[in-house]
Each structure stands twice: as structure tokens, then as C-alpha cells.
Design brief:
About 25% of the residues are buried. The strands form two sheets. Strands 1, 2, 3, 4, 5 and 6 form a six-stranded antiparallel beta sheet that branches. A six-stranded antiparallel beta sheet has the order 7-8-9-12-10-11. By secondary structure, it is α+β, with helices and mostly antiparallel strands. The protein is built from eight helices and twelve strands.
Length: about 290
């Protein structure tokens, strides 16, 4: 009789179990007309067999696990309510060893997990242990990989990536002993240069330039206003900027070569209205603004 060698089998249960459940506002139900914020969560499962598990047993084991995905989805939704930033993967090994003990609970081993997933592991493990495996021939074992994702976590991750990109300022040392950074709006309508003495805190240039890059739109509007009356907006504005440890700024204007007086009256209030990041220590920097023609 010819012996057949069982190869590892892979079964993929692509279960996009999406759930868009509303997150209730604290302190009671939302009033009529208020926004109803929901978080959409998705859970997918893949099952990969080991070399000693036949395809028939693996299929039944995978079905027994997939039948629990509704409860596993609930586990994740409950976690997302409190900690929506948790997303990633869980990886288990599930094993049914005893041939004649159909009611024997499976052995579960956590092989991999994402940060902050401990409450999820406890809930998922409890769900898998109480599942029905009576139709699964034994011995049988498989690797379970679950992917957890939700809309709020994705949005938060994207915001963090944008913030990290924005926070990076290319500061260079000049021959005159200053630290300097330059930035311009798309189309070069407004150009900015920030300089600080080397004795200033290391983040002096970055604090001012990051503020500029977050708030450049009002400066574009000030340039547009400087065109009114048929005047040319082209020119330069020199400003000394001081930011205290609380992120509050004071400014002192130097030379202004823009013809229209609105170049100053429009830009000056922005420094009080738009908050700065808190520096490591009070900083002083020079800001040069150029309005293009």
C-alpha cells in the first residue's frame, strides 16, 4: 500500500467582519442634531495547517474557529471603545491532541501580538476555548493569524505620520554662526527664513518654523490683501520673535518694504492668535518674510 505524504495545507478565511457601531457620548445620549461618531472595525482570519494535519481535519478546525468570529469581532469592538489606537495582529497555535476525547478543550499558545492587545488576547482566548470542536478529527493543529483594524486607528496613524513629517525642520549652520531654516509656500508666493543665534536652545528655529508651516495660509491671505488698491505685494518683512516657555509669542517689527500697510496690520495679530509649541526654554529668533510679486 502506497503511503501518501501530507503536505502543509493553507486555508484562508477572508472574513471582513465590519462593524460600524456608534460610540456614545459620555454623560448621556447625544441630543438631536449632534454628530454621531462611529468607528468601523474589521477583523480577518487566516488558518494555516501543520504538516501532520490532513486537509479534511484542517477544514473542520478552521470552520470551528471561523464560527466564533462574531464573538471575536465583539471582543475587538469593546476594546476599541476605550483604546481605539489598538490595531495589528494576533497569532496563535491551536492544538487538539486526544483522538478519543472529543470534548477536550484545545490548547492555545500565543505566538505573536501587537502592543496593547492583552485584553483582546484574554477575550479571544476565552472565545476559542469554549468553541465546539466535536466534528474535528484528532489530532489536529493549526496556526491562526487574526488582523484587527479600525477606522479611527488608521486616521490617528495618518495624523501622527503627517505630524512627524511636519515636525522635521531642516536646520543648518551658517558661516556667520547662526542656525537657519527656509521654507516657501507652493508656488513661492510667500517665502520664510528663520534664524537664531547658536547660543539659543536647539529647538529655537524649529519652534518658529513649525508654527509657520502650520499657519502659512493666513500669510498667503495677507499677501493677497497687500495687493488691494492696485499696489504691488512684493517686499520683505523683518520680525524679531520671542516665544516663552508657555508657547506665547511677542514680536517686534523691523524693516517692512511691502508698500501696503496691511502687510504689517494683517500679519501681526497672527502671532497672538495662533499658538506656538512650547519650547524647551524661552527662544528668540529672527523671521524674514518675503511676499512675491
Amino acid at each position: 500500500m502506497r503511503k501518501h505524504r501530507l503536505l502543509p495545507t493553507f486555508i484562508l478565511f477572508a472574513l471582513p467582519l465590519s462593524a460600524a457601531g456608534p460610540v456614545a457620548a459620555q454623560g448621556g445620549e447625544m441630543g438631536q442634531g449632534e454628530a454621531n461618531i462611529s468607528v468601523r472595525s474589521d477583523v480577518t482570519l487566516s488558518v494555516k495547517g501543520t504538516g501532520g494535519t490532513s486537509s479534511e481535519r484542517l477544514a473542520k478546525l478552521g470552520q470551528a474557529v471561523s464560527d466564533q468570529m462574531g464573538e471575536i469581532r465583539t471582543c475587538y469592538r469593546q476594546l476599541v471603545k476605550d483604546t481605539p489606537e489598538v490595531m495589528g495582529k494576533l497569532r496563535f497555535r491551536i492544538r487538539l491532541d486526544k483522538e478519543n476525547e472529543k470534548d477536550k478543550k484545545p490548547e492555545l499558545e500565543v505566538l505573536d501580538q501587537s502592543a496593547g492587545s492583552e485584553p483582546l488576547i484574554a477575550c479571544v482566548t476565552q472565545t476559542l476555548v469554549k468553541a465546539k470542536y466535536t466534528d474535528v478529527g484528532r489530532p489536529a493543529s493549526a496556526f491562526l493569524a487574526m488582523t484587527f483594524d479600525n477606522s479611527r486607528a488608521r486616521g490617528q496613524a495618518e495624523m501622527q505620520q503627517r505630524a512627524a513629517k511636519l515636525a522635521h525642520v531642516d536646520v543648518r549652520d551658517t558661516l556667520s554662526g547662526l542656525r537657519e531654516a527656509n521654507w516657501a509656500t507652493e508656488g513661492d508666493e510667500v517665502k520664510f527664513r528663520v534664524r537664531a543665534d547658536a547660543v539659543q536652545p536647539n529647538d529655537a528655529v524649529g519652534v518658529v518654523m513649525n508654527w509657520i508651516r502650520r499657519n502659512y495660509a493666513p500669510f498667503l491671505d495677507c499677501r493677497r490683501r497687500s495687493e488691494q488698491g492696485g499696489k504691488s505685494p512684493e517686499g520683505d518683512i523683518e520680525i524679531d520673535v520671542s516665544v516663552d516657555a508657555k508657547g506665547q509669542a511677542k514680536v517686534k517689527y523691523g524693516a517692512v518694504t511691502v508698500e501696503h500697510t496691511r502687510a504689517r496690520t494683517c500679519t501681526e495679530p497672527l502671532f497672538k492668535k495662533l499658538p506656538f509649541d512650547k519650547p524647551s526654554a524661552p527662544v528668540n529668533a529672527k523671521l524674514d518674510i518675503h511676499f512675491a510679486k
